[in-house]
Amino acid sequence: MKWKLVRRCVQVAVILLILSPALGFGIFSGTLISGELFGVELTDVLAALDYTLAAKTLTAGMLIGAAVVLVFYFFVGGRVFCGWVCPVHLFSEMARTFNKRFGFVSLRPPRWQKYAVLAVVLVLSFVASVPVFEMVSPIGAVTRAMATGLRIDRGDGSTVVADVAGGVGESDLTVTLVLNGTLVLLMFILLMDAFVKKAWWCEYTCPVGALYSIVGRKSPVGVRIDHDACTDCGDCFGVCPVPHVLTPAVKGEVGWVQKGDCSNCLNCVDACDEKALALRFWSRARRL
Amino acid sequence: MDRRDFLKKGIAVVVVGGTAGGGITRLLSGTNATVVRPPGAGEENDFLAKCIRCAKCVQACPYDSIKTAGLGDGASMGTPFLELREIPCYMCEDLPCVGVCPTDALDPTLTDAAKMLLGTAVIVDREACLSLNGIRCEICYRVCPLIDKAIVIEKHAHQITGRHTVFEPVVQKEVCTGCGICENACPLDDTAIAVVPTQRGDKAAHYDYLRKQERVEL
Ligand code: SF4
Ligand code: SF4
Ligand code: SF4
Ligand code: SF4
Ligand code: SF4
Predict the structure, then answer these.
(1) Nearest CA-CA partner of A227 in A281, A278, A263
(2) Which of A107, A135, B119, B146 has its CA 20 to 30 A from that of A247?
(3) What are the residue boundaries of the structural domains of chain A, listed by start?
(4) Residues B26-85 pLDDT 10s
(5) In Å, what is the CA distance from A155 to each residue of A74, A190, A194?
(6) For residue B48, how far is its CA from the centre of ligand 3 (angstroms)?
(7) Considering the entire predicted model, what is its pTM?
(8) What ipTM did this prediction achieve?
(9) Rounded distance, CA A27 to CA A218, Å?
(10) CA angle B104, B110, B114 (to 5 degrees)
(11) Per-domain residue ranges for chain B?
(12) Considering only CB atoms, which chain A residues are within 8 Å of B51?
């Protein structure tokens, strides 16, 4: 339970950061497609790739912003973006809890599906000259709604985006949900999570997840297994959204949980009563 | 699955997905859109290629002028656009919208709001315009931030009464920035002056001699 609490705090903190301009402490501005934290420009790696392919030009500031993000996720583990940052993943985790009782339809998407989606997105961006994923991205839609959807009602029928704390006290704070097409995609994702295949989007379909999964393949941070302590009880499999990454480690074949698909969510570490699993940086890992 | 099989499947997926996705992309990208884009946006297809739908410009606009396009807005999903009749662009001196754009979708070389080109104001309803009816309205002229440059008043005799003067607002296309402040201010229920977006499709561009001319330096 310990790690899960930490992770939930980080996930909520990210949402608060995106809301921060509206709440009056703008340390972050923009969205998870492109934003600015303490004045440092950060751009999603897939957005930068799609842009470069679609616009067929290189834009230095943006590439630097994407490089910062890339290096960060390489070090902490690529899909840490999914497990710790992305609000769609947080909402998806909520929806997944319904799947046990309401998962009426069963579906087994292939593992390579998200890489295929990534390939299609990149090819399409180039051919159609539009950053394809950013156009439909549920991550973009939901963070856009957070960044620009919180409005102060001025009382005269018009609304302004709340930006300074000063204005909030005097008038009613109303949250306007910018219901557009891409939020419909989010709804669809949550329905899939609840009724069809849990984590259908995040683990099998999302091209951002696919890209970060490639980015994190050689990451120095990961989950280490102590084979002597592991009793092969299988508890970790029950809580892991991508259980196939645990298989070789639990079987005793390797000392690390497979990197890439693993989001370092640490559900498995929490679940392991024998304390056989732990978060480790490579230099501190014991030799097998 | 062996490597060959994987490759075959991969190619099939890319081809099938690409074709299906291509259709959907065209559908969603709405390249024929005639919406007003934020300052600094270039030709529509170029803008659509460059804008990553990050909403930074939407957030940066102090007047809440810029909105994000949803499904029913007739513009590519997630892109920023303005509805000038509701909230015009107030031509901020420092153009914060352009400044925050991480891509070149909003041209960073645009530093002077008077040089932006969202569209061009046009008297769209000459029957309804109060001034053209001989009434002293001229609100659009008064509110124009480029008064006497972007809109001028041309006086001529009232054709019906024969003894009054009509104060006709006339937009100077070479100067008007398309900010929409006039459109926003027109007191009629349905505005008589409206900004026609820069993007008007191929046919219009073909006949658009004026836009090819040099813009007037202020
Ligand atoms: S292996 Fe552990 S840390 Fe990795 S995704 Fe599964 S539960 Fe999370
Ligand atoms: S110039 Fe100012 S008012 Fe106009 S769109 Fe940009 S930020 Fe908004
Ligand atoms: S800031 Fe630039 S890239 Fe972002 S939504 Fe606006 S125009 Fe598009
Ligand atoms: S749009 Fe109207 S107010 Fe703005 S510059 Fe043109 S004429 Fe003036
Ligand atoms: S504000 Fe409207 S009615 Fe008045 S002069 Fe201008 S266009 Fe005509």
Answers:
(1) A278
(2) A107
(3) 3-214, 220-281
(4) 555 555 557 899 999 988 889 999 999 999 999 999 998 999 887 777 788 889 999 999
(5) 48, 35, 39
(6) 10
(7) 0.84
(8) 0.84
(9) 31
(10) 145
(11) 24-212
(12) 131
